[in-house]
Amino acid sequence: MSESRSPEPKPAATADQVDAAWQDTKLAQVLYHDWESQTYDEKWSISFDQRCIDYARDRFVAVAGEQGWPYGKSLEVGCGTGFFTLNLRLAGVLGDDLHVTDISPGMVDVAKRNAAGLGLSLEGEPADVESLPYDDEAFDLVIGHAVIHHVPDVEQAFREMLRVLRPGGRLVICGEPTRLGDWVARRLSRATWWAATRVSHLPGLRSRWGRPSEELDESSRAAALEAVVDLHTFDPGDLAATVRRAGGADVHTVTEELTAAWWGWPVRTVEAALPADRLGVRWRMFAYRSWLALSRLDRAVRPVVPAELYYNVAVTATKPRP
């Protein structure tokens, strides 16, 4: 038997590619996410253990509840490396008939590789969510996590997701940025990046904590592409109205992460700015447990805090029966 090989790492986006991507957002999506695919799990601390199983399950339950499990045939749009589908499968939310798409071939490749490593079967192919390559009424559940803010025509994307759903099937999209929450998070991230990259290059700290200049340049190019691929932020009410216009019924939204986002985004920025091997497991567990504690606080104060201030919005809907 031949030894299986991981896909070759995608090269970093060049300056010329970034220039071209400014004129073509879908090219930008492919370039950026292909480049990110080989390091995406490390960047976002993605795993397929109890920590991420609980996270994925809790995000799903918060907006869609626990009825209907396990769903039969599921499709994830904008699957990335398989985080949402695979962890929901491990949580018992999904059955064995798993399908994923992403506009990035590199992401689909890694999602398949992650599934194989877990002993799971997963069908996947590159696809644009605005024009899905599936028959009408093919799936019991369509899901996505942190995807629709990348899509130029959000309403058309929801029409396509509802088209491929069976009557009575459910749509669940989680992890989308709200307008005000994203405004705060980005400013916290920029301030943290500025401080972390400068402090880590001070004399006496550079050898241990400073990332090489070429790696920082690569991260800066990625940040430039983020400005092209992150197209939307959402008001919860407006998002619900978009799903209704697309044909969804029983539409419901929920927002999460207030102080947890104020903590989480600077943490992620520190992890991007400093050498990963220097922070270690203790740092990651401290960051995660702090995020959990703040998430509990955010849920407790939700009745008195406007939904628009929270960072994440999730939406669910069903496809009307004839």
Q: Identify the CATH class of the domain at 15-179 and 231-261 and 302-318.
A: Alpha Beta
Class inferred from helices and paired strands? alpha/beta
Instruction: Give the CATH topology of the domain at 15-179 and 231-261 and 302-318.
Output: Rossmann fold
| Adjacency order of strands in the biggest sheet | 3-2-1-4-5-7-6
- Give the helix level as a range of percent: 40-55%
Number of beta-strand segments: 7
Characterization of this structure:
With 322 residues, this protein is α/β, with parallel strands linked by helices. α2 (25-37) runs parallel beside α6 (105-117), α7 crosses α11 and α8 (179-199) packs parallel to α12. The chain contains 13 helices and 7 strands. The longest helix has 26 residues, at 276-301. The radius of gyration is 20 Å and the shape is globular. It has a domain at 15-179 and 231-261 and 302-318: Rossmann fold (3-Layer(aba) Sandwich). The protein has helices at 15-21, 25-37, 40-43, 50-64, 83-91, 105-117, 154-163, 179-199, 206-209, 213-229, 236-246, 259-273, 276-301; strands at residues 71-76, 94-102, 122-126, 139-145, 165-177, 249-256, 312-318.
Secondary structure elements and pairings:
Blueprint: H1 15-21, H2 25-37, H3 40-43, H4 50-64, E1 71-76, H5 83-91, E2 94-102, H6 105-117, E3 122-126, E4 139-145, H7 154-163, E5 165-177, H8 179-199, H9 206-209, H10 213-229, H11 236-246, E6 249-256, H12 259-273, H13 276-301, E7 312-318
Parallel strand pairs: 1-2, 1-4, 2-3, 4-5
Antiparallel strand pairs: 5-7, 6-7
